Amino acid sequence: MFKKSLLAVAAASMLTLTACGGTAGAGSAAGNSGDDKITMGFAQVGAESGWRTANTKSVQDSAKKAGVDLKFSDAQQKQENQIKAIRSYIQQKVDVIAFSPVVESGWDTVLKEAKNAKIPVILTDRAVDSSDKTLYKTFLGSDFVEEGKKAGEWLVEQSKASEPVNIVEIQGTTGSAPANDRKEGFAEAIKADPDLKIVASQSGDFTRSGGKQVMEAFLKNNADIDVVFAHNDDEGLGAIEAIEAAGKVPGKDIKIITIDAVKDGMTALSNGKINYIVECSPMLGDQLMDLAKKVIAGESVPERVVTEETTFTQEQAKQVLASRPY
Ligand code: GZL
């Protein structure tokens, strides 16, 4: 709406200028209420984890702060719901569409519809595997391969003694960019130490209940588990419940490495139940609104904007826990 009213104002002003040499105000020439607010359609994955909740809050708070009119939808982790939401934003003629694709593939058709409607799309948090880079303006989010690598590198560093280390992996949502890339990065890093072996790997769908169920199965089928690599804190917290129910001590009998660094994860880390967390920042809202304004104004934006992130040991978690914003 913002972009269209701008074009309408420009056209009308040209007419006005030609007709009477004056310049019409935005409101009167475009025939709208002079509303120069940007309207963004945001199709969120769902509310599956503490990370997602923090990400939703960041997007909503930043939209308010930036004066962006935000239309928001929660897809309950279903791709068809995200596609429906994007189509409804196209119908509503929003100025820009932003979304976090729940899985990497199956987006070309709906993204082509947005392109044909001349509505720019910004990918935030997760990426798509489309070969057509003209279907979106930019990607804002983490380097998930790097996150998986950091998790694996810590384990290689910790496992000096040359004895077999049995690892079970609780993957994120099947087909999602973070699950694919974290798996890749972790496997790449642990190749450095042949004693480190992934003996089981299954998706917990980035949820606490999923992590608990998968860990219960791992404990039943694997007598000797030394390490859990969970693709997010929520799965790691579910694994802790299963490990304790099995009478073992999480963080000691079975070491746990996770990714995200949300409050509940950092609390478990500072209490010694998790051993290491790789940060994945959900606070993408401000950068998203800034990119949206640039895209609508026709300014060039980087193809990819990677977020700054760090890692936490148990000691570091104790120091920063109280000041963590989410
Ligand atoms: C990562 C994000 C992942 C988080 C999970 O950027 O897509 O999805 O790691 C969340 O906690 O569910």
UniProtKB/TrEMBL annotation:
Example of a GO MF term: carbohydrate binding
Protein name per UniProt: LacI family transcriptional regulator
Signal peptide: 1-19
Segments forming domain Periplasmic binding protein: 46-299
Subcellular location: Cell envelope
Recorded family membership: Belongs to the bacterial solute-binding protein 2 family.
InterPro entries in the cross-refs: Peripla_BP_I (IPR028082), SBP_2_dom (IPR025997)
Gene3D superfamilies reported for this sequence: 3.40.50.2300
Keywords of this entry: Signal
Gene Ontology annotations for the cellular component aspect, listed alphabetically: cell envelope
Originating species: Arthrobacter globiformis
